[in-house]
């Protein structure tokens, strides 16, 4: 089985390195007849695009997507959709240091241990640049499940969390942090600026919710909706934790406190709480699907860290260059994309088996 | 792709319901020539077996495994290994209440929404009894990677955590909680007894570590070692969160605080910390793989909870019968099994692609 | 990917050896709500069952199937259906000769080259006994596509072919050869008897047709309906060739002679010929799907053949014991089963992607 | 599972239509460290390239391949290899006739039945142009198994077969038919010219052999080497039959006549015949792998054929434009590529499971 593909029926395969000529995704299994053009994909890529504020990497990539196949007269044909994004700003810089010494926290050492060598330019295949392909594929996934709204935001940066009482959906796109709490956004400006100027970095927690998922999507065992979402999100660069619903907090609760009681509603049950995050037994309940994702701080920092070089000798390495001081921020459109991709896949799996 | 199978090259498929005649697993892709008999599997099943203390369900299942295929003259042949466990204690009880009303937190409602009906006896396919099949398959996986030691324990019950300063590996198997901190084990006795007597339930956090995993296992993108582990663990009944290494705590750190510095060691690097939990870029670094798993409290409680019945009418339901007051405890051998299964699979994938 | 599984959405996994305690199949992905009991499976197994005439192996196996999971109150639940058939007549015989020397034409030598050793008793996993599992799984597949009628027959034995002008569907089940031409059936009686008495064996050609397959099932490239059928049939023991429609005869035709002209019909087109065997571009046209399968003569013969033993020394081997003089005869229900399994899978794949 | 991908561990995904901007393949799972540049791929594409003689379509495509990812400093990195071929000669022509009426023998009607509409320009995704992607991927596969030599040729055109007594490997690349028999090549010149001038078309039989495949590659049941090859070849446009070794001829033999006797050889057995085509029980024996593939005559012919249009009304259609009068000729490099792709995949699967 291919290890650069994701999904069962709605499936995508990505390719490309940070400093190659281009990156891309091939989306397979898309239903035929959906309206699709570059204009449906570009806005999501623009959300993820680097260089739009001083709080993200200064690499300037237009991230213009081209659809090379799978669309005819403005509609998907049911055949593979090839999406390509050219790399433009592969700034000529000296990678000799990165080529020789392993950056702690990066994939460098593990990669060499696996393959014997690696494309070290800008992280090669392990670069967060690969996530642009996921976002492009995710834009197609959204068209497969128009009834679903996937919406993410940053919940905390460097341990400073939003106040959910101040949650304002409209605020999310109004600041460079995808922050739904305007007061927190102001605090984060100083926080992230400080980290950036110090050559340091910060971790973040991203939350994401999918509304409109009908009860029944998912599977009881080895393609559980929550397991697929955990796989999807833990596979994003820099992610170290995933929670569904109450997550680790549920582990401290009693059964009574954790119960999502039901009463008769207009269409199916009305739930009195959503500790479960919209999933029981791996299957959607019809409530909003809720998850949280932990991003570690960017491993690229200016402070020199002890390491070894390719010959095993001691070295110190400081990572200069263009980096996100808080990689979790641009993680929001990526988490959204992965959630949309999982849900589109589950929608087709469910329809395949049950006809609904 | 089958949704009751797990793994790429080392792959298993499970079948069976709580109250059917038997459950089982078919393990496929096992290397030939490994010594294997029922005696290699049974001890792990015995760790998971119900009814061994008053802190677990009182269902009495001997959980005797039979190997029906794939072994000849004591060695694996490279062909499918069929493992079967007969169900013995399917106590005749009245399931009419469960058949009619949906138990909140259980798969009941979502299952009906998916399939239109369900085997409601004892949870049917969604019963935690299915995890016995995982444990049996996991026992085979351990034989594929003898250099690896997978070891799990309970870290917290109902919010009461162990003191890692008192961690004693030898203590884990000496109490009914897989607790490495003898003082915590004594506290938990009262805690779980209280919940059990009150007909309530408790959540738990399970930790698991794999030592001896060589640097290089894993994959850079869509079969990342951490993503596969997250999928494996989030797919266990009642799990709501998974962390690798520092997990959510890493999201509150700076890049400096999160860096796992390296210095020259005897064989490869020596790491000065393990915030990463032994995985960077989806690939093992050679450090111990560390993860944490959050189990919600058992949804079966005696306190009546508001719900609806199959006709959509309001109802109250209290779940009588035999249940684990804290399902996370018996989750330990299951988390271990899933970790072993992922690692065996990655070992073969790595060897297939790289020849190492 | 597991190598003992077949299918994408409707998928089955088989296990078991000729002389182990049992064999079986786990059918995954079956739609919920279908009526299913052992009585739906047994008749197909009875067609394939050995020992029913002197023209098949004299091994006496009742081939009683048990359904161990996936069915509740007489209907499929959408979860794995575990089918088990116990081996009864594992006659105690001396396999020392087979254990030491490789039978030409059998899997013996190649198996040892792959795995280093093998379960040599009765062919082990390579025994045609495994096909009982396929037939059992195929019986479930038929229920998924009740609108389809899959029907196979023997077209030729040892080069002696039926006369299609005498084709009588009703005759197929009236003789021990699944022969639709009563005159040929009489000839074959002498032919196969002669081979049996001489300790020789004969090859055969099996034809199979599926009526009622709607236009649209299939896929344009790497899951082409014809490619999937070729895979399914070439994977049956002793098969050496597969043709769709006119097959190799089409290679000698001109485009004009091979054209399947169309004219307006009551529901879609009416075809004036079916050279294509009901498939163009990998997708069903709505015509009957037609294929032919070549079975080589059973490799087990009494005439000694030169071979080598496990130490590489020269040896002669004659295969005594219970064997089908013409393994193609009992291939009919197996080809039917594989065709039903492919079609059920394609039906679900088509529905998953297109909603139809 | 994706339906535009092929292979288990060495896996490729293709995309693109006849008249889109480009076509391509993403090769995943390639071992790291192999020398690879465009110069390794281009010669195989040149063999398949249209417009090189008057016996193939006159579409002029340079078929220049670009490697967009997966190679660093001239070596494969173990990450996806993106291969792209731009479409150059999408001659502006009037497709209104093809858009409206279904060409018999083509995918047109079945495609519309499946997806509701299609990209009709030049066959869209069903165009034989897609096979260029297979050939490009196959060139990479050859590098994975340098010990194997895959070699194909045309055995018959329009029923006129070569004389194997006159077989000359060196002649194959010396004529426009990949014909190993110089006398047949001269006959075919007149034969194909006649068909071309008449606006007719001819079928062909392609043979292919792989030498150097070690005993042990393959799998006993559902990834049998012969089944995988049958799938690979039956999935090529216009193929209607596949044989391994003696194929259908074996069905007319007795067991004695079909036996491949063995005697001790220098390394493993020496076989006295190769009726089996180098595969028993789905596993390679170490003999040359031999297969034959039947290509139907090109369905595009000038003679008008009765058909229906999209509204179901009667119509006649004659296919003007640029077409191969015998599509089987250019099938040779495609069959070779598919064989190399299957063998590379099996090599990695074998190594993954057994370590050899």
From TrEMBL, chains A, B, C, D:
Listed pathway(s): Metabolic intermediate biosynthesis; chorismate biosynthesis; chorismate from D-erythrose 4-phosphate and phosphoenolpyruvate: step 7/7
SUPFAM superfamilies, sorted: Chorismate synthase, AroC
Task: Please list the residues that bind NADP(+).
Answer: 48, 54
Q: Paste the cofactor note.
A: Reduced FMN (FMNH(2)).
The reply to whether Lyase figures as a keyword in the UniProt entry is yes
Binding residues for FMN, per the UniProt record? 125-127, 237-238, 281, 296-300, 322
Any matching Pfam family: Chorismate_synt
**PROSITE patterns the record matches:** CHORISMATE_SYNTHASE_1 (PS00787), CHORISMATE_SYNTHASE_2 (PS00788), CHORISMATE_SYNTHASE_3 (PS00789)
**Enzyme Commission no:** 4.2.3.5
Catalytic activity reported:
5-O-(1-carboxyvinyl)-3-phosphoshikimate = chorismate + phosphate
UniProt keywords, alphabetically: Amino-acid biosynthesis, Aromatic amino acid biosynthesis, FAD, Flavoprotein, FMN, Lyase, NADP
- Of which family is this protein a member? Belongs to the chorismate synthase family.
Q: Which HAMAP family match?
A: Chorismate_synth
In Swiss-Prot or TrEMBL terms, this protein is called Chorismate synthase
Q: What is the lineage of its organism?
A: Bacteria, Pseudomonadati, Pseudomonadota, Alphaproteobacteria, Sphingomonadales
The gene behind this protein is aroC
């Amino acid at each position: 089985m291919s290890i650069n593909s994701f999904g069962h029926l709605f499936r995508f395969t990505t390719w490309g390195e940070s400093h190659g000529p281009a990156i891309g995704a091939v989306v397979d299994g898309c239903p035929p007849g959906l309206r699709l053009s570059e204009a449906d994909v570009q806005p999501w890529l623009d959300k993820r695009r680097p260089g739009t504020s001083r709080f993200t990497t200064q690499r300037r990539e237009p991230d213009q997507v081209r659809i090379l196949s799978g669309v005819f007269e403005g509609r998907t044909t049911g055949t593979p959709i090839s999406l390509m994004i050219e790399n433009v700003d592969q700034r000529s810089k000296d990678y000799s240091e990165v080529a020789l010494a392993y950056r702690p926290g990066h994939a460098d050492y593990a990669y060499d241990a696996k393959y014997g060598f690696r494309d070290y330019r800008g992280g090669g295949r392990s670069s967060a640049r690969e996530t642009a392909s996921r976002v492009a594929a995710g834009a197609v996934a959204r068209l497969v499940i128009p009834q679903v709204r996937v919406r993410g935001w940053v919940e905390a940066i460097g341990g400073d969390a939003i106040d959910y009482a101040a949650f304002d959906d409209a605020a999310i796109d109004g600041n460079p942090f995808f922050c739904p709490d305007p007061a927190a956004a102001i605090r984060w400006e100083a926080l992230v600026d400080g980290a950036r100027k110090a050559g340091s970095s910060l971790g973040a927690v991203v939350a994401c919710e999918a509304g409109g998922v009908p009860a029944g999507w998912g599977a009881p065992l080895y393609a559980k909706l929550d397991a697929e979402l955990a796989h999807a999100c833990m596979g994003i660069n820099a992610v170290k934790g995933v929670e569904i619903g109450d997550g680790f907090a549920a582990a401290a609760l009693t059964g009574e406190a954790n119960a999502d009681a039901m009463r008769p509603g207009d269409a199916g049950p009305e739930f009195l709480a959503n500790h479960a995050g919209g999933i029981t037994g791996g299957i959607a309940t019809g409530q909003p699907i809720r998850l949280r994702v932990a991003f570690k701080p960017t491993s690229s920092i200016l402070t020199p860290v002890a390491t070894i070089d390719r010959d095993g000798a001691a070295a110190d390495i400081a990572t200069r260059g263009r980096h996100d001081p808080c990689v979790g921020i641009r993680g929001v459109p990526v988490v959204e994309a992965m959630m949309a991709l999982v849900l589109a896949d589950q929608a087709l799996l469910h329809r395949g088996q049950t006809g609904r």
